[in-house]
Protein backbone atom coordinates (compact mmCIF):
# COMPACT_ATOMS: atom_id res chain seq x y z
CA UNK A 1 0.00 0.00 0.00
CA UNK A 2 1.26 3.38 -0.83
CA UNK A 3 -1.96 5.28 -0.85
CA UNK A 4 -4.19 6.04 2.08
CA UNK A 5 -7.26 6.26 -0.08
CA UNK A 6 -9.56 3.29 -0.29
CA UNK A 7 -8.77 1.47 -3.52
CA UNK A 8 -11.09 -0.58 -5.73
CA UNK A 9 -10.87 -4.32 -5.17
CA UNK A 10 -11.10 -6.25 -8.43
CA UNK A 11 -13.48 -9.19 -8.46
CA UNK A 12 -13.35 -12.16 -10.83
CA UNK A 13 -15.95 -10.44 -13.02
CA UNK A 14 -14.44 -6.93 -12.97
CA UNK A 15 -10.74 -7.88 -13.11
CA UNK A 16 -10.40 -7.37 -16.91
CA UNK A 17 -11.62 -3.76 -16.50
CA UNK A 18 -8.98 -2.92 -13.87
CA UNK A 19 -6.23 -4.79 -15.71
CA UNK A 20 -7.02 -2.86 -18.90
CA UNK A 21 -6.76 0.45 -17.01
CA UNK A 22 -3.29 -0.56 -15.84
CA UNK A 23 -2.42 -1.00 -19.53
CA UNK A 24 -3.93 2.43 -20.33
CA UNK A 25 -6.93 0.97 -22.10
CA UNK A 26 -10.62 1.24 -21.43
CA UNK A 27 -12.47 -2.03 -21.90
CA UNK A 28 -16.16 -2.66 -21.33
CA UNK A 29 -18.34 -5.65 -22.12
CA UNK A 30 -20.41 -6.17 -25.27
CA UNK A 31 -23.01 -8.87 -25.79
CA UNK A 32 -22.24 -11.36 -28.56
CA UNK A 33 -25.90 -12.18 -28.85
CA UNK A 34 -27.54 -8.71 -29.25
CA UNK A 35 -24.47 -6.40 -29.60
CA UNK A 36 -25.64 -4.41 -26.54
CA UNK A 37 -23.01 -2.69 -24.40
CA UNK A 38 -22.88 -3.40 -20.69
CA UNK A 39 -21.35 -1.47 -17.81
CA UNK A 40 -20.65 -2.09 -14.86
CA UNK A 41 -19.05 -5.52 -15.38
CA UNK A 42 -21.53 -8.38 -15.13
CA UNK A 43 -22.01 -12.05 -15.98
CA UNK A 44 -25.04 -11.48 -18.18
CA UNK A 45 -26.29 -9.00 -20.77
CA UNK A 46 -28.62 -6.37 -19.32
CA UNK A 47 -30.47 -6.10 -22.68
CA UNK A 48 -31.21 -9.74 -23.61
CA UNK A 49 -29.94 -11.60 -20.50
CA UNK A 50 -27.59 -13.79 -22.55
CA UNK A 51 -24.54 -15.09 -20.67
CA UNK A 52 -22.36 -14.20 -23.63
CA UNK A 53 -20.40 -11.04 -22.94
CA UNK A 54 -17.04 -10.17 -24.40
CA UNK A 55 -14.53 -7.52 -23.29
CA UNK A 56 -13.91 -4.88 -26.00
CA UNK A 57 -11.50 -2.00 -26.03
CA UNK A 58 -13.16 1.38 -26.66
CA UNK A 59 -11.82 4.93 -27.07
CA UNK A 60 -13.64 6.17 -23.98
CA UNK A 61 -14.97 9.33 -25.56
CA UNK A 62 -18.27 10.49 -24.17
CA UNK A 63 -20.16 13.38 -22.67
CA UNK A 64 -20.66 14.66 -19.15
CA UNK A 65 -24.07 13.35 -18.10
CA UNK A 66 -24.11 14.79 -14.58
CA UNK A 67 -21.77 16.04 -11.86
CA UNK A 68 -21.51 17.52 -8.40
CA UNK A 69 -18.73 19.47 -6.70
CA UNK A 70 -17.86 18.23 -3.23
CA UNK A 71 -16.25 20.86 -1.05
CA UNK A 72 -16.16 18.89 2.20
CA UNK A 73 -14.27 15.58 1.99
CA UNK A 74 -16.41 12.54 2.68
CA UNK A 75 -13.27 11.01 4.26
CA UNK A 76 -10.13 12.81 5.52
CA UNK A 77 -8.10 10.85 2.97
CA UNK A 78 -9.67 12.88 0.16
CA UNK A 79 -8.92 16.30 1.68
CA UNK A 80 -6.14 16.93 -0.85
CA UNK A 81 -8.61 16.67 -3.75
CA UNK A 82 -11.10 19.36 -2.76
CA UNK A 83 -13.21 20.36 -4.53
CA UNK A 84 -13.83 17.04 -6.23
CA UNK A 85 -15.90 16.98 -9.40
CA UNK A 86 -17.75 13.71 -8.96
CA UNK A 87 -19.16 12.97 -12.39
CA UNK A 88 -21.27 10.58 -14.40
CA UNK A 89 -19.99 10.20 -17.93
CA UNK A 90 -22.08 8.75 -20.73
CA UNK A 91 -19.87 6.91 -23.17
CA UNK A 92 -20.50 6.87 -26.91
CA UNK A 93 -21.72 3.26 -26.43
CA UNK A 94 -24.57 4.57 -24.23
CA UNK A 95 -23.42 3.20 -20.88
CA UNK A 96 -22.66 5.52 -17.94
CA UNK A 97 -19.62 5.46 -15.67
CA UNK A 98 -19.19 7.05 -12.26
CA UNK A 99 -15.88 8.89 -12.25
CA UNK A 100 -14.04 12.06 -11.34
CA UNK A 101 -13.64 14.96 -13.75
CA UNK A 102 -10.15 16.46 -13.54
CA UNK A 103 -8.23 19.45 -14.89
CA UNK A 104 -11.36 21.43 -15.77
CA UNK A 105 -12.03 24.74 -13.99
CA UNK A 106 -15.32 24.86 -12.08
CA UNK A 107 -16.81 27.52 -14.34
CA UNK A 108 -15.95 25.53 -17.46
CA UNK A 109 -17.83 22.39 -16.40
CA UNK A 110 -21.06 22.04 -18.38
CA UNK A 111 -23.50 19.19 -18.75
CA UNK A 112 -23.07 17.60 -22.16
CA UNK A 113 -19.45 18.70 -22.59
CA UNK A 114 -17.26 16.30 -24.56
CA UNK A 115 -14.89 14.29 -22.36
CA UNK A 116 -12.20 11.68 -22.75
CA UNK A 117 -10.45 9.28 -20.38
CA UNK A 118 -7.38 9.89 -18.24
CA UNK A 119 -5.52 6.87 -16.92
CA UNK A 120 -4.47 8.12 -13.51
CA UNK A 121 -1.54 6.21 -11.97
CA UNK A 122 -2.23 6.49 -8.26
CA UNK A 123 0.50 4.27 -6.79
CA UNK A 124 4.05 3.35 -7.52
CA UNK A 125 2.77 -0.15 -8.35
CA UNK A 126 0.85 1.17 -11.36
CA UNK A 127 -2.62 0.95 -9.86
CA UNK A 128 -4.78 3.02 -12.20
CA UNK A 129 -8.05 4.87 -11.73
CA UNK A 130 -10.22 6.07 -14.58
CA UNK A 131 -10.80 9.82 -14.60
CA UNK A 132 -12.18 11.98 -17.35
CA UNK A 133 -11.24 15.39 -18.65
CA UNK A 134 -12.31 17.81 -21.37
CA UNK A 135 -11.47 16.74 -24.93
CA UNK A 136 -9.65 20.08 -25.15
CA UNK A 137 -7.08 18.75 -22.66
CA UNK A 138 -4.28 16.34 -23.43
CA UNK A 139 -5.80 13.40 -21.55
CA UNK A 140 -4.09 10.04 -21.85
CA UNK A 141 -1.88 8.93 -18.98
CA UNK A 142 -1.36 10.90 -15.77
CA UNK A 143 1.91 9.68 -14.31
CA UNK A 144 2.38 8.82 -10.65
CA UNK A 145 4.04 11.70 -8.80
CA UNK A 146 6.16 10.69 -5.83
CA UNK A 147 4.74 12.90 -3.03
CA UNK A 148 8.07 12.70 -1.14
CA UNK A 149 10.06 14.11 -4.04
CA UNK A 150 9.88 17.82 -3.20
CA UNK A 151 10.00 17.61 0.60
CA UNK A 152 12.97 18.94 2.60
CA UNK A 153 15.57 16.73 4.25
CA UNK A 154 17.15 17.03 7.70
CA UNK A 155 20.85 16.80 8.63
CA UNK A 156 20.66 12.99 8.63
CA UNK A 157 19.28 13.01 5.11
CA UNK A 158 15.83 11.90 6.28
CA UNK A 159 12.92 13.24 4.28
CA UNK A 160 10.78 15.48 6.52
CA UNK A 161 7.11 14.61 6.25
CA UNK A 162 4.57 16.97 7.85
CA UNK A 163 1.97 15.01 9.79
CA UNK A 164 -0.70 16.98 7.91
CA UNK A 165 0.53 15.77 4.51
CA UNK A 166 -1.52 12.61 4.21
CA UNK A 167 -0.46 11.90 0.66
CA UNK A 168 3.22 11.96 1.58
CA UNK A 169 2.58 9.96 4.76
CA UNK A 170 0.87 7.26 2.79
CA UNK A 171 3.88 7.01 0.48
CA UNK A 172 5.98 5.98 3.49
CA UNK A 173 4.11 2.70 3.74
CA UNK A 174 6.11 1.19 0.91
CA UNK A 175 6.78 -2.18 2.56
CA UNK A 176 10.55 -1.77 2.27
CA UNK A 177 12.84 -2.64 5.18
CA UNK A 178 15.45 -0.19 6.41
CA UNK A 179 19.10 -1.20 6.52
CA UNK A 180 20.24 -3.20 9.55
CA UNK A 181 20.86 -1.28 12.77
CA UNK A 182 23.95 -1.36 14.98
CA UNK A 183 24.65 -4.68 16.72
CA UNK A 184 24.56 -5.50 20.42
CA UNK A 185 25.59 -8.61 22.37
CA UNK A 186 23.03 -10.29 24.61
CA UNK A 187 25.27 -11.98 27.18
CA UNK A 188 24.45 -13.90 30.35
CA UNK A 189 25.12 -10.85 32.55
CA UNK A 190 22.46 -8.86 30.67
CA UNK A 191 20.01 -11.77 30.89
CA UNK A 192 20.66 -12.10 34.64
CA UNK A 193 20.13 -8.38 35.16
CA UNK A 194 16.79 -8.58 33.33
CA UNK A 195 15.79 -11.67 35.35
CA UNK A 196 16.40 -9.70 38.53
CA UNK A 197 14.55 -6.63 37.29
CA UNK A 198 11.51 -8.49 35.94
CA UNK A 199 11.36 -11.29 38.50
CA UNK A 200 11.39 -13.88 35.69
CA UNK A 201 14.32 -16.04 36.80
CA UNK A 202 13.24 -19.27 35.09
CA UNK A 203 16.22 -21.65 34.74
CA UNK A 204 16.00 -21.60 30.94
CA UNK A 205 17.26 -18.02 31.16
CA UNK A 206 19.47 -18.06 34.26
CA UNK A 207 21.01 -21.53 34.81
CA UNK A 208 23.65 -22.29 32.13
CA UNK A 209 24.59 -25.66 33.70
CA UNK A 210 21.04 -26.99 33.73
CA UNK A 211 20.31 -25.48 30.30
CA UNK A 212 23.31 -27.32 28.86
CA UNK A 213 21.77 -30.63 29.94
CA UNK A 214 18.03 -30.06 29.71
CA UNK A 215 17.30 -27.22 27.29
CA UNK A 216 16.53 -28.04 23.65
CA UNK A 217 18.81 -25.07 22.82
CA UNK A 218 21.73 -26.55 24.89
CA UNK A 219 22.24 -23.13 26.44
CA UNK A 220 20.33 -20.40 28.21
CA UNK A 221 18.22 -18.04 26.09
CA UNK A 222 17.23 -14.42 26.54
CA UNK A 223 13.70 -13.52 27.63
CA UNK A 224 11.62 -12.51 24.61
CA UNK A 225 10.61 -9.34 26.42
CA UNK A 226 14.28 -8.51 27.06
CA UNK A 227 15.07 -8.72 23.37
CA UNK A 228 11.98 -6.65 22.65
CA UNK A 229 13.03 -3.78 24.95
CA UNK A 230 16.60 -3.88 23.61
CA UNK A 231 15.06 -2.28 20.54
CA UNK A 232 15.74 1.00 22.36
CA UNK A 233 19.48 0.32 22.03
CA UNK A 234 19.23 -0.39 18.33
CA UNK A 235 19.49 2.64 16.12
CA UNK A 236 17.23 1.84 13.21
CA UNK A 237 17.77 4.38 10.48
CA UNK A 238 14.32 5.29 9.21
CA UNK A 239 14.46 7.13 5.89
CA UNK A 240 12.01 9.76 7.13
CA UNK A 241 11.24 12.12 10.01
CA UNK A 242 7.66 13.06 10.82
CA UNK A 243 7.35 16.73 11.73
CA UNK A 244 4.66 19.23 12.71
CA UNK A 245 2.88 17.24 15.45
CA UNK A 246 2.04 18.33 19.02
CA UNK A 247 2.51 14.97 20.74
CA UNK A 248 3.92 11.58 19.82
CA UNK A 249 2.77 8.59 21.87
CA UNK A 250 3.83 4.94 21.88
CA UNK A 251 0.35 3.47 21.52
CA UNK A 252 1.39 -0.16 22.03
CA UNK A 253 1.66 -3.10 19.69
CA UNK A 254 -0.77 -4.65 17.26
CA UNK A 255 1.32 -7.82 17.25
CA UNK A 256 4.23 -9.01 19.34
CA UNK A 257 5.86 -12.37 18.54
CA UNK A 258 9.06 -14.15 19.51
CA UNK A 259 9.46 -16.65 16.64
CA UNK A 260 13.09 -17.64 17.32
CA UNK A 261 15.21 -17.87 20.49
CA UNK A 262 18.19 -15.63 21.25
CA UNK A 263 20.81 -17.91 22.88
CA UNK A 264 23.00 -16.25 25.54
CA UNK A 265 26.02 -14.63 23.93
CA UNK A 266 24.24 -13.90 20.64
CA UNK A 267 24.69 -10.68 18.73
CA UNK A 268 21.44 -9.08 17.58
CA UNK A 269 20.44 -6.33 15.19
CA UNK A 270 17.18 -4.94 13.88
CA UNK A 271 15.40 -3.32 11.00
CA UNK A 272 11.91 -2.02 10.34
CA UNK A 273 9.40 -0.99 7.74
CA UNK A 274 6.27 1.12 7.75
CA UNK A 275 3.40 -1.33 7.63
CA UNK A 276 0.49 1.07 7.71
CA UNK A 277 -0.59 4.67 8.07
CA UNK A 278 -4.12 5.41 9.13
CA UNK A 279 -6.11 8.43 10.17
CA UNK A 280 -8.74 8.51 12.88
CA UNK A 281 -10.24 10.96 15.36
CA UNK A 282 -7.29 10.10 17.64
CA UNK A 283 -4.76 11.40 15.13
CA UNK A 284 -2.39 9.86 12.62
CA UNK A 285 -1.38 6.32 13.49
CA UNK A 286 1.85 4.91 12.09
CA UNK A 287 2.43 1.18 12.40
CA UNK A 288 6.09 0.29 12.32
CA UNK A 289 6.93 -3.38 11.86
CA UNK A 290 10.15 -3.94 13.80
CA UNK A 291 12.14 -7.15 13.34
CA UNK A 292 15.04 -8.13 15.62
CA UNK A 293 17.27 -11.01 14.49
CA UNK A 294 20.29 -12.87 15.74
CA UNK A 295 22.93 -11.62 13.32
CA UNK A 296 23.01 -13.89 10.28
CA UNK A 297 19.71 -15.64 11.06
CA UNK A 298 16.89 -15.37 8.53
CA UNK A 299 14.21 -15.92 11.15
CA UNK A 300 13.37 -12.95 13.35
CA UNK A 301 13.59 -13.37 17.12
CA UNK A 302 11.14 -10.50 17.67
CA UNK A 303 8.38 -9.17 15.43
CA UNK A 304 6.79 -6.09 16.90
CA UNK A 305 4.07 -4.14 15.07
CA UNK A 306 4.59 -0.93 16.98
CA UNK A 307 1.88 1.70 16.81
CA UNK A 308 2.90 5.34 17.15
CA UNK A 309 0.21 7.97 17.47
CA UNK A 310 0.84 11.54 16.33
CA UNK A 311 -1.49 14.43 17.08
ZN1 LIG B 1 -27.51 -9.15 -25.19
From TrEMBL:
Provide the MaoC-like domain boundaries: 181-284
Q: Which domain of life is it from?
A: Bacteria
Q: Which residues form the ChsH2 rubredoxin-like zinc ribbon domain?
A: 18-53
Q: Which Pfam families match?
A: MaoC_dehydratas, OB_ChsH2_C, zf-ChsH2
Q: ChsH2 C-terminal OB-fold domain spans which residues? A: 55-120
* PANTHER family in alphabetical order: BLR3430 PROTEIN (PTHR34075)
Q: What is this protein called?
A: Acyl dehydratase
* Species, as recorded: Colwellia ponticola
> Upper lineage ranks?
Bacteria, Pseudomonadati, Pseudomonadota, Gammaproteobacteria, Alteromonadales
Amino acid sequence: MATLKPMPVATKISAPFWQALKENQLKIQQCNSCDGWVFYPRNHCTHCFAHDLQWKQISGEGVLYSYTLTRIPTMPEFSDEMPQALAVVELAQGVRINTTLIDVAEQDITIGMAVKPVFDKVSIDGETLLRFTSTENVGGVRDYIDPLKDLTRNDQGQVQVPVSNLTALSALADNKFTDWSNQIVVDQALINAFAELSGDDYWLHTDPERAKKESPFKTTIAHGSLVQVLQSRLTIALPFEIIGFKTMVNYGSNRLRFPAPVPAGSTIYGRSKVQDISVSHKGVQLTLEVHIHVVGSDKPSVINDLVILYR
